[in-house]
Amino acid sequence: MVIAKKWVVVQASKGFPKISDFKLEEEKLRPIEDGEFLVEAVYLSVDPYMRAYMSRLPKNSTMIGGQIAKIIESKAPEFPTGKYIYSSTGWRTHSIINSKQLSDDMGLLTIILPDFGNLPLSLGLGILGMPGNSAYFGFLEICKPKQGETVVVSGAAGAVGSHVVQIAKIKGCTVIGIAGSDEKGKWLTEELGLDYFINYKTQNIEEELKKAAPNGVDCYFDNVGGEISTTILNQMKTFGRVSICGSISGYNATEVQKISSPYFTIVTKQLTLQGFIFSTWNHQWFEGIHANLKWIQEEKLKYRETVTEGFDNMFTAFTDMLQGKNLGKAVVKV
Ligand SMILES: NC(=O)c1ccc[n+]([C@@H]2O[C@H](COP(=O)([O-])OP(=O)(O)OC[C@H]3O[C@@H](n4cnc5c(N)ncnc54)[C@H](OP(=O)(O)O)[C@@H]3O)[C@@H](O)[C@H]2O)c1
């Protein structure tokens, strides 16, 4: 009999998550039935959306999340033993998956990982997975960047942000990135080719943006929301395009956030703002993965991962990521 370990949410977090909101438990798994397969987690993801969506979970649910796992037993021919999959089974070491239920409430799909060549399997959680497709489609389809334009990316050193920075460079744009430490700025400018870095914790974004983009901003890829985003919207050019990917600045808020209204600037500059969810492009999932894989192979796209060792450290990895301790994608190696 297989005994799974799992992280259970025992109470909705109020504000920043506490370890007492979670419990690490064991579960005896039943034998698999026809059409099912059993997987063992290899890498688990910790993502900001988990903080935003965990509040909706019924008490004592397994914490939500995606993982790369190995199929260790199968009664579903299309999912043979030995293959590696991505699935949103939650924070657990072993899971039984029904091959007829391959999509979750958020639209995350269970897939057999494509061949990444010599690249690590963990990339299926980041640059060659959901964050990678969010960057690829969310930036290209909504911002429609053109050569010579000026692009601002907030949350620029994270999984999605660092990827968008590089796509914008590939497209011939001038790119301004905003993140929370000078170490992140060094990586973005020295290794990823970012043109101008702004540390939102120590610098005045408005003043720095005026220096970096004196003629205004054409495209803004927004990972953070809040006051940072209003400041950027105020410095956009007429007909600027904004892709709204996330609003992490508010995910741990205990009260309604009060920010300066961007409406006057949206109207007078005739801006286009569009939010998106990655699953809009689920029908093009492998197109995004293969485009990003090709860029990595051509050395046009680089990646960093912040790897935490040990399933028992899921909570630490999660809260470290929420506090910005990650460079690139935050993952946990079982
Ligand atoms: N719409 C979609 O389909 C979709 C898909 C994937 C992700 N997202 C969203 O995209 C954003 C980035 O996700 P990710 O997976 O790439 O995460 P990530 O950027 O790798 O990690 C989160 C980062 O957020 C930053 N952060 C934390 N608190 C902040 C605050 N108050 N203000 C500004 N920045 C803050 C931290 O970096 P600093 O050191 O810079 O603070 C941290 O490293 C999130 O908002 C997420 O919800 C949306």
TrEMBL record:
One of its GO terms (cellular component) is cytoplasm. It is an enzyme of class 1 (oxidoreductase). Its EC number is 1.3.1.48, 1.3.1.74. It catalyses: 13,14-dihydro-15-oxo-PGF2alpha + NADP(+) = 15-oxoprostaglandin F2alpha + NADPH + H(+); 20-hydroxy-leukotriene B4 + NADP(+) = 12-oxo-20-hydroxy-leukotriene B4 + NADPH + H(+); hexanal + NADP(+) = (E)-hex-2-enal + NADPH + H(+); 4-hydroxynonanal + NADP(+) = (E)-4-hydroxynon-2-enal + NADPH + H(+). It comes from the Eukaryota. GO terms for molecular function: 15-oxoprostaglandin 13-reductase [NAD(P)+] activity; 2-alkenal reductase [NAD(P)H] activity. GO terms for biological process: prostaglandin metabolic process. Gene3D superfamilies: Medium-chain alcohol dehydrogenases, catalytic domain (3.90.180.10), NAD(P)-binding Rossmann-like Domain (3.40.50.720). It is found in: Cytoplasm. Residues 15-332 form the Enoyl reductase (ER) domain. Keywords: Acetylation, Cytoplasm, Fatty acid metabolism, Hydroxylation, Lipid metabolism, NADP, Oxidoreductase, Phosphoprotein, Prostaglandin metabolism. CDD domains: leukotriene_B4_DH_like (cd08294). SMART domains: PKS_ER (SM00829). Transmembrane segments: none annotated. Belongs to the NADP-dependent oxidoreductase L4BD family. Monomer or homodimer. This is Prostaglandin reductase 1. It comes from Hypothenemus hampei.
